[in-house]
Amino acid sequence: MQDTTFRSADGKLISIPLKRTKNSLPSASWKNEPTYGININNLLDSINQNENQSTHSSSGPCPSPRHDQLWVEKWRPHRFIDLVGNEKFNRRLLTWLRQWSSVVFQSKDTEPSIDFLNRPVKKILLIHGPPGIGKTSIAHIMAKQLGYSIVEINASNERNTQQLKLNLTNSLFHDNLFSNPTCLIADEIDGAQDSGLIKLLLEILHSDKRATLTRKNSKKNKLLKRPIVAICNNIYSHSLERLKPFCEIIPLRKPLDSAIIERLQLIAQKEHLSLSLQALKDIIISSQGDIRNCINNLQFNANTNARDPSVSHKDFNNTWFKIVNSIFQKNLHLDYKLQFQNLTKTISLNGNFEKIIQGCHTLYPTMKYSDISLQKPALISDWLYFHDLCQNSLFQFNGELLRYSSIVPLVFWLNFSDLSNKIDQLINIPDFRIKELQNYNNNICNSILSNLKSPFINSLSLQLQLLPHIDNLLSTDLSGLKNLPLKNSIFEKLSSILQLYNLQIKQLYKDSGPDSKLILSIEPPIDDLVILDETRKREIITKRPSIYNQLLAKHEEIKIKQKQLSSVPIKRKLAETTTTTTSDQSSSKRQKLSTIDFFKSQYNKISTTQTETTNTTTNTTTNTTTNTTTNTTTNTTTNTTASSATSLSDIRIWVRYTEGFSNAVRKNVTWESLWE
Amino acid sequence: MSLWVDKYRPKSLNELSHNDDLTTLLQSLSSYHKDLPHLLLYGPNGVGKKTRCMSLLQSIFGSNVYRLKIDIRNFTTPSNRKLELNVINSQYHIEITPSDMGNNDRIVIQELLKEIAQMEQVDFQSSSGNGGAASTGLAHRFKCVIINEADCLSRDAQAALRRTMEKYSRNIRLIMISNSLSPIISPIKSRCLLIRCPSPSDEEHLALLKKIVDAENVNVESDDILKKIVKESNNNIRTSVLMLESMALSNEFNLKSTSPIIKPDWLNTIIKLSMKIKKDRSVPCIVECRSIIYDLLAHCIPPKIILQELTFQLLKNYNNSIKVTDENILDIMSISSTFDERLALGNKPIFHLEGFIAKVMLALDN
């Protein structure tokens, strides 16, 4: 191939070099390469290669099953590809963190953002989800993958505010010469005692917000240039309320069982454990999707097997689920009395009556036994009450009655044991799961209640009466309604309800499955709290999004209308009294300004806010009066900062030419000429 | 624009709808507004106890009592646990729900009430207004404390309340609101003026709904549907108004007498559960019922309410299930009361609810 040449009009020879395609090999480090544009096959190959190398290197001294290290630590995922489940959210997390690259590493390949430093709009990433699904692991891996060094703050750290502040400023605002830029990971931030940390974070965020407005990094208002990742269990915790508007919230869910099994199989294989698929499944069920717990159990099982099979077997025999199963099994060859004595002994030795009785209770309806009508279940309910009373003595009489609980399993044995029950059954006590769900639902309810300024509603009537009806109202299908004025009035009503109860229609992930889609639903999720019926549960995914879509459109429309209505009197007021500007809000200073100064500052403000992120936080406090405050001074409350973001649509400066006169000439006038 | 429940809620004593005797009593109370006895309002859910209480305050203090704000108070238990309590207050009153704190309600009563009680309220208005009061210096004023769900107060908390009520009666007046009188200890009852708020009669209830229907321009075919709503709501005004609103909305403001009644999901589930119990009395059915009960419990439906609703649903006769005889009704009632006690004393609702179902099935079989 040769360069093309041609002669130009003035006789010169011009050659045009061929455009050379750069044939650069993608390096494995993701730091310098965008995620897309890499050949996926190359990438996978390189991963495989790495894997082979690592296995070769570790193949020599094979890790023995009785390794000193905890397996939870040993098999903590170390790379992105090791992560189990939640692929979609993991990717969202990674994109968020990558957006920081342009400010932290000065890389050029990120997508342009509204932020002038190309940072993401929300400055904090908030991960939430049940315990043991790898929230901390994900955060660490992501940060490592993108080349950050990690500073972690968790419940074990010093909670002294002074100390904490020093730590935070050190890690967030000061560069370290020797290591990579830092990424702050604030673990377990949803505790009552952590309000200090949250306060500090808020302080940082607010000062950052002011600094972004002025685009200057002053001593007082520092620009945040490092990513912060926060992790919590309970997103509806009260202490998080104020932090949430600044957060990109990512929910993590329990991974699918199949994904966990794959991971466990890999571990078992690497640790030279031979466990059946059923055993693995049992482990998963007993730990209820908690991967950390699964791996712990796996190690425990491996260790007991490795030592002495007979001893471990005996130990195993005494666990509560073994006892429960033996209660339901009658032995043909043993004497009735002897069997009773044996059982008494094992039960009193074990001492975990609570668990044993719970197990018996969950298991008995599935067992075979002879009965006339339902006499035995009715009888056992009396004994269960007896047990409950004994347990309660723990709170009143120092648990003196506890030991009598040991009789209850024997009653189970007397009534429900049968020769035909031979195979050990798996016991899955749902109590813990129910408790978790209860907590979750309670949190939703409380978060609504705490925002509601009505003395007439208590939590019970909110839950049982009000919320079901609100849910019903909001999900009413109005598309078939012909009468337009009526339809509009209904929509107006619904949107006022949304505002009153602080509900928002948002895109959320409703499905826990791997192919969950973003669908419109209500936040906080009152439908989770209210709906029990299966067919209606399905409607959340199928029918409701379109209804919500319509409602959302109307809601926004109404809000804009309200805003316009409230801004009209202000405009008029401005026209009348142009000499002074009233600033009625508490924080801002009062200043007397001339008309021109006022307009000038307005103009400056608009031009700065235009580039600023107009984040669509639907805080519709139409305090347009605050927006007319001329100076961008220290407004510390969240409320005012939020409204300053939405102020863009409110503040307009109108200049009208009086046309129709002979001397009215239309010409371009610059702003400078107006006040110079 | 808000929900009809809030929109048509009476704001002053003159607007109160049913029970005129009670209204006159409250009006006479408000006329001696310099002094108000401790009040204990009791009555079933959704008959307007709180509405009456607020309108009484309104008539004493003026409409500023509806200007509310929410505070969050922090308490520390002796075992160093930190607790948070939402407190709704206005200039003139403060409202607490100590039962939110479970066993720790005593601390709330002790600390919060004492704190309020030890502060003297000064009434600037009347002291500057009339010369008579000015002669004695600043006029004195009491602050009202509303205690919600007083029947859930633990014994300790009630005992803590006893002395406070007398000692600081100069500075605070208590208005307690409870569903029933029996859990409240007699020393407190004797210190309060007991006011019973009865349910409205069917006619009063119907008139109330009709007023709303007229004001909102809802076309109602006949009164039958309204009567049906009144019946289904168990004379709970909040439920009936909410029901009316969601039915009106889903039927495009045209209520026919055949329009289906909209009930909350949890109630429907309990009705289905009762059908299931009547239809199939066997062990596999118990397993199914258990999962339903677990589901209800997970959705934070209190076990007591499950038991109550389930009992009443079981007593009803439907065409397609077995007939409940009079003997059965007696049996079910006695079983239900036994298990109500067990629920109250015990800690494991699932045991008792399931036991209730098993015993009822047995009773129906015989």
UniProtKB/TrEMBL annotation, chain A:
Signal peptide: none annotated. One of its GO terms (cellular component) is Ctf18 RFC-like complex. SUPFAM superfamilies: P-loop containing nucleoside triphosphate hydrolases. InterPro entries: AAA+_ATPase, ATPase_AAA_core, P-loop_NTPase, RFC_lid. This is AAA+ ATPase domain-containing protein. Transmembrane segments: none annotated. GO terms for molecular function: ATP binding; ATP hydrolysis activity; DNA binding; DNA clamp loader activity. Residues 610-641 are annotated as: Disordered.
TrEMBL record, chain B:
Keywords: DNA replication. One of its GO terms (biological process) is DNA repair. Residues 35-200 form the AAA+ ATPase domain. SUPFAM superfamilies: P-loop containing nucleoside triphosphate hydrolases, post-AAA+ oligomerization domain-like. One of its GO terms (cellular component) is Elg1 RFC-like complex. PANTHER family: REPLICATION FACTOR C / DNA POLYMERASE III GAMMA-TAU SUBUNIT (PTHR11669), REPLICATION FACTOR C SUBUNIT 3 (PTHR11669:SF1). This is AAA+ ATPase domain-containing protein. The lineage of its organism: Eukaryota, Fungi, Dikarya, Ascomycota, Saccharomycotina. The gene is TBLA0B02620.
